[in-house]
Amino acid sequence: MAFPTTFFSRPWVVFTASILLRLALLFYGKWQDANSPVKYTDIDYLVFTDAARFVARHRSPYDRATYRYTPLLAWLLLPTSWGGWWFESGKAVFAVGDVVAGWLVYAVLRRDGSMGRERALRLASIWLLNPMVANISTRGSSEGLLAMIVLGILWAVVEGRLWLAGVLLGFAVHFKIYPFIYGASIFLWLHEGKDGRIWKGEVWVLFNESRIKLLLASLSVFIGLNVLMYKLYGMPFIEHTFLYHLIRIDHRHNFSVYNTLLHLNAATNANGFKIESFAFIPQIMLAVVAIPFALAKLDLPSTMLAQTFVFVTFNKVCTSQYFLWYMVFLPFYLPKSTLLARPGLGVTALLLWVLGQAAWLQQGYELEFLGHSTFVPGLWLAGLAFFGINCWILGIVVSDVSRSGRNTQAPDLREQPAEPKKSR
Questions:
Q1: Are residues 232 and 366 in the same domain?
Q2: Rounded to the nearest 5°, which phi and psi values hold at 271?
Q3: pTM for this one?
Q4: Is position 133 within any domain?
Q5: Which residue, of 246, 262, 282, is where some domain finishes?
Q6: What is the pLDDT of residue 409?
Q7: Which regions span the lipid bilayer (predicted)?
Q8: Are residues 209 and 333 in the same domain?
Q9: Residues 237 and 254 occupy one common structural domain
Q10: From the first residue on, what is the mean pLDDT of each consecutive set of 10 residues in the chain (424 residues)?
Q11: Per-position b or e across 384-405, b if 16+ CB within 10 A of its CB
Q12: Rounded Cα gap, residues 334 and 341, in angstroms
């Protein structure tokens, strides 16, 4: 029992372990790619690096079919075009990103001094020492880098560095669209009063100095980057980076509840009602309107978890990498959650979440590897079950944040002058 206490009492030990874990996986991945028919490297990484090679030859990254990302990602991975071990450099960048994200988790947890070092390190290790997180980044997924940017936004907001928060938010939305949902909760959290209200009498206080800083910085960076990329790459940039995601149909490796319907639409090439063009409506209403208005004043980090969870659950495309989008916020929510307070409930939720994926993957295996037609009822029922499990867990999260916030009023992480005590 002494080892865990010593291990989690020293930040350098935890962070060194997280780095060594990723280094080991990088070397293992190189070996597996060379010796196994089943490759370790993610197919998306091959798309990224192909686009980087096009850029190195002074061509557009969109000359690579299926490249649906900002050109900045291809620019970042230019060294991968140099050959040899340089090909792995992008994975190293992504791995560094998710380690930095873990450090930011630790920094935010420790910021107000209410949480001890050891407990903060244990919670941060949910991300830092998570084999799923390390595996995804070292296979060549950029989610770890995105997590670093998103956690940078949260850190900058709670530190009161709103110009920086706005810059990072604008960059994050340019890099991948979904972080725009955090703008709503941050905007609402930056209220004038300290009592958690956004209403003053009959007038809604919409703008204040903090909100104006956030808006100006985020919009300036987002618009500036998009104008620059449009000048360099024209309409292909707009089509592949933004418009494509409104009509995207991806019925492979997709846990989404819309999966079977997307498959049927793709198979029939229907010209009528297209669910993929409207699936975002309930997703946006919940993630951008309902949850921020209900929870943002109570607990910003946990609100961002709930927003991300609902965004992923209701998204028309949902893959394992997307789970990292909300997993990075778990260390902020778990300390005051019923999932830890009631271990039976927590274990049940975790088991159902894992089994829901396993059921879907079993049906997917039969479809793709055995050639069995499992779309109906197999994949359809598995998708519905996983969706139901996620909605149940989401209900627990929202209930926990609402209850703990209203009962104890989550501490305001901004610096505020102490109020003089009133004599009785």
A1: no
A2: -105, 0
A3: 0.90
A4: no
A5: 246
A6: 53
A7: 12-29, 67-86, 92-109, 144-164, 171-190, 278-296, 308-328, 340-360, 380-398
A8: no
A9: no
A10: 70 96 97 94 96 97 95 98 94 98 97 88 97 96 96 97 98 97 96 51 67 96 98 96 77 77 67 67 95 95 98 92 96 96 96 95 83 82 95 97 73 48 42
A11: ebbbebbeebbebbbebbbebb
A12: 9
Selection from 154, 173, 144, 147 nearest residue 111 by Cα: 154
Instruction: Give the containing element (helix H, strand E) for 204.
Output: strand 203-204
What is the pLDDT, as a whole number, of residue 334?
96
* Whether residue 258 is found in the same domain as residue 149: no
Among 158, 171, 73, 124, smallest CA distance to 328 is for 124
pLDDT at position 423 is: 41
> Is 288 part of a structural domain of the chain?
yes
Could you tell me the residue range of the domain that residue 232 belongs to?
142-246
Q: Look up tokens 């690096």; give the residue.
A: 49
224 and 203 part of one domain: yes
| Residue at 382 is within a domain | yes
Which residue's structure tokens are 């090679």? 53
Contact 55, 71 (CB under 8 A): yes
CA separation for the pair 18, 63 (Å, rounded): 37
Q: Tokens for 245, please give them.
A: 């995601």
Tokens of 89: 């450099």
